[in-house]
Protein 1
Amino acid sequence: MNKVTTDVLIVGGGPAGMSAAVAASGNDDVRITVVDDNPRIGGQIWRAELGKLKSVEALELLALLDQQWITLVNNASVFSNDGSSVLAETPSGRIQIEYKSLILATGARERLLPFPGWTLPNVLGAAGLQALVKGGLDVQDKRIVVAGTGPLLLVAAEYLTSKGARIVAICEQTTNKKLDRFALGLWRSPSKIVQGISLRSKLRGIPYYRNAWVTKADLQSVTIQHFGQTTDIECDMFACGFHLVPNIELAQLLGCEVADGFVSVDDYQQTSISDVYCAGEPTSIGGVEAAVVEGKIAGFAATGQIIEANSLFRARKKTTAFAKALDQAFELRDELKTLAASSTIVCRCEDVQYGKLTDHDDFRMAKLQTRCGMGACQGRICGAAVEFLFGWKDRSVRPPIFPVKMENL
Amino acid sequence: MITLTINKISITVDEGTTIAAAILNAGVTAFRKSVTGEPRGAVCGMGICFECRVTIDGIAHQRSCNVIAADGMEVVTDE
């Protein structure tokens, strides 16, 4: 087994992780290592297209990283910890990385909710489909419905259109009132992205429905509920995601305090464990601006650059307000709890149907009786679904937090 | 350009293409069979959901969205 020692280990190479690495490198005396489980650095929002980073911000950070003594390990899934080191599986075997400080920048994943047809092969996450297109999937002339909730729907629709797809409809489940309040608040938010995209989407003539949500999908169409009426929309692919949930499994494994599903941090982004920091989506879903500023603070704080960290507190405050606005604007409506039929699969890994779960009081009992959440993804997908459907929040985490080959355990 | 096989059929893709994208571009939608035999395809695109697992060069359960296509790779789906 390969063993590496570093001063600052950063898990996750997205906006938070890259920003943390650049900030940490301001201290010339520290060795920095960034590990990421995807093939290229950039995370999701800056995901490389066919292996090439396109975002100007990402390229600037990468250029800064290239000038420093930073070790970058791609395709490395951190699956366990051992004292002040983590274990990761890479295509060439297992590595152990010993650190003095650890920065968790593990990002977020899409929240996917079960409805009849959601396990069909032509139904994907909205960010999921976007990621696949960045990986080379050809969507030219494909008819696609984008549905769910959150600003990512517009981002995905805009991107897919630019790649030649025909977006037949965008269906946002939230109410006009909440969306309008959110749009009004954007002028004081750090992000103009959503506003800009919303406008461009309109200009391109893409039908955009609010108060609209999917009730079922098949291989040729999706059924949308909109002001009491259902409409079938023909499409080749259906991209559906319900905003984001944080990736906090590694933080939980390390024993960091978690409150309301997010990792608790202090002013310096330090978790309840000293020398373990957390930045970006795992602390609150605040988007790329929040991730960048929190990453910088964590990187400075972890390397003793306290004045630099302090100078960013005001900038971070603005992003916190934005995170709160996102939360309120894209709150899930109760009707979404009624979409799954008794035979609808909730746990995709173990094929556990909704009807098999309704008898149980908590996630633990459901797991023991049905294997819900015990498959390959370890509840990363169905965990967020059962939390919304049944209020089950007790998803326990134990190593390995990703499936690994026996020889690497 | 990169040439690989998907279920023994040769396909050429751009450099940097993921195996998941290559599979879909080849017209294959069933990546794996679920525990009850349902066909499943890629969902999250970022290595989280494990629905896009395929066999690559004889190694089973590879997340195809997280693997970049290389010349001569042999990919087998729907197992």
Protein 2
Amino acid sequence: MTNSTTPVAANASSDAAAATAASLHESRFSVRWGVARVLGWMRLPKNFVLLGLILLAPALILRIFTSVYPFFATAWTSFTNSSAYVAEPHFVGFENYVAIFDNPSSRSALIFTITFAVVSTALELVIGFGLALLLNARFRLRGLGRALVLLPWAIPAIVSALGFRFIFADGSGLVPTFLAWFGVDIAWLTDPFWAQVAVILANVWRSVPFIAFVVLAGLQGVPDELYEAARVDGAGWWRTHLQIVLPLVMPVLITMGVFMVIFQIGTFDTILGMTGGGPGSATQVIPYLAYQDAFIGLNYGRSSALAMILFLIVLAVGVIALGRFRRAEVES
Amino acid sequence: MRLRTRLGRVGPYVGLGVFFVVFGVPVYWILLSSVLPPNEVLSSPPTLFTLSPTLETFERALQQLPAGDYLRNSLVFALSSAFASVILAFFAAYTFARLRFRGSGALMLFLLLTMALPQIATTIPLFQLYAKLGLVDTMGGLILLESSILIPMTVWLMVSFIKQIPVDLENASFMDGANFAQTIHLVVLPLMRPAFVTLFLLNFITAWNELFYPLVFSSTSASRTLTVGLVQITQVNSGASSRPWDLMSALAALMIIPIILLVTIMQRRIIAGLTAGATK
């Protein structure tokens, strides 16, 4: 594009850019000027930073009070033997962490938490991309259709979880009844493996709409000429979408993938409502285990250590993702 | 070839049809269970429709549970949290978008990073703090927590919405002699109305669906929300078959009917908000 513009046009546009920059500079200045006026009027020091801090204060203080401070307190508690049965908790080093990795059921919860987040995300990206392609087509009652697709995301997770418990229930559930027509007999919620499959499916059901709508927003940025050009070149539907459209929305898919993995590592409502971590501890996840340790087992030290492990996983995913992005940016 | 084009025309409808069935049936099933007579709920084979819906289940839910209290608490909780979070996020976002100063970028990053702290990694100290302050089992305490957790995402979206307003409008207002409060009130707020509606809706839905905080911090119907009420019923009888699914479905229906209405009427705004964060 830039190559085809004439030098004159290029000059003109750079002049325009300079003018915009100048006016932006001025405008920034005049916002400051207006602020200074108000502050003078409010009998406060004519300090621009001060107003910013005053406006920020409520949000920042609330976050520090309900999130940052308690987080550091949790980090400390994870190194103590704090529990409802210990009068004077004391420092125990990594004892809680060692106990968690030594215990087969908390180890399996750790593994399933990661499996749950990764498998769910992979399925959601594939299905979400497909659904976005379908929603991008023109069809009648599109508004109503989109509202219907949005529902799984919008209804409470605890409601859909309990709903799915009965949909997968042996005998009376919709899914076993439907599969029985085809001679398939699966004990969904009583078999450890199929229970894991069932909670992942319920979770995917809930999360696909969000991905689909984000990808759809990305698709709407793909110019019509591109489809036209692909058609002229003889590319079929599959080739057009897999080789041209998919690479274009790839950045969105990667961002969503990272976000969904981080988000779903913290999954709680779905497990609580659908299986309670069972059968046995097949579908147990770290957040629910940490909750049970804290408010049923009253073992605060161990619960805090579980929560910190959860945080470290989130941190690791975030750091790895950020590193990848940096490299991709440099390469491109 | 002809078969292929025909497939191409019908394909999307078949695909969409499958999605609509898969997405719609669970919601339909929950709603249906709430209007079935109790003996038909969880029958085998499952009842798929009824010609004689009954409100019997809702009546029993209101008699046997403080469902009215739960509903009131859920409404107060979700409305207040959505309102407080949007207002606080607006002030913070205005600073980040317009009053940038040295260090404001770092503060914004700090605010956004607090999103990565898992809820469970803050709960035990919060509970101890709340116990000291007498905030356990109060609506005020719950609203404070929910507003707080909603703030980072709301700020993130709000900054991008504020940046879409041309800054010249604010400057013109200052030049005309308006002060800061007047400019915000007369120029910025009217332009931000659609953004406020979108963010209020998103936060209302999130807070309405919130289970974790009320589950931990509520102990009586003074602050129990519908989500906690629902979990409470499942724990009454622990035998799988004796769980009162009929009462559960009444509460569940109570929870999802307002959401269905909101989503149907306001889907355009909700989708705009959902996608604004990821595509910016």
